[in-house]
Known about the structure:
By secondary structure, this protein is α+β, with helices and mostly antiparallel strands. The chain has helices spanning 2-7, 39-46, 51-70, 109-114, 119-135, 145-154; strands at 17-23, 26-31, 73-74, 87-88. Strands 1-2 form a two-stranded antiparallel sheet.
Amino acid sequence: REANSAAAIANPHVVQVYDTGENDGLDYLVMEYVHGVNLRHEMQTKRTFSVRETLRVVSETLNGLAAAHRAGVVRGRVQITDFGLAKAASQATLSSTGMLLGTAAYLAPEMIENNLATPQGDCYSVGIMAWEMLTGQVPFLADNPVTMVFKHVNENVPSVATVCTGIDP
């Protein structure tokens, strides 16, 4: 179901899903091949990005997410090459074991508090990604994911200027 939802998205910033199937009890996806570098790898290598580079990545990410939202696909975290955690907007966002899906550093407050995957929550996650691209770290640091999600719910994301002094507002 999720693969079919992802296949309905036609956007240059979303990897195309061509087909799905099953072979000997194993499900598979046939996806567009993308030659390039993973953003996480780039973030680990470069550490920080310029405002211009960050705005380009954020703009293209939001463009792809907008197409996904129009198709009724909402993500709990941003990873547009992989819609494995994507959920149709009307579906629950708990795994079969009842655990919340997502990466604690990027989860939106409404996902944490109410288990709601929303377009606004996706935008929140992109904002956290941009914050990290500019500063080299996520805004909330903690020794464990529970503390981190508590901060997302109960604290405002600090201004990028608190880490990047002199950044143009």
